[in-house]
Amino acid sequence: MFYTIYKITNLVNNKIYIGKHQTKEINDEYMGSGKQLKRAIEKYGIENFKKEILFIFETEIEMNAKEAELVTAEFVLEDTNYNLCPSGHGGWGYVNSSDLRTKGHNKE
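Below the sequence we write its predicted structure tokens.
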């Protein structure tokens, strides 16, 4: 099993998405599950996105720790990325309770 941290870059506007993924096949073409990222892929087309594997770990614990280090509350507030929630959090309950809906992330 591979435990990865990846970065997806929109080649049109240079916005990025950082995520984690567990897989048996390192080149499985997984392109993330973020809602804003998926909307951007629909808008610009998959051909305008590039995926890079940043880190490969031996354990899920290491992967989760690195994601927490990279995807912080401050990071998700930046307009340069598609991430909505800090690492380890997710879902609309978190987004709604933290008022991220009004931080410019609810539109592409």
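Strands lie at 2-10, 16-23, 49-57.
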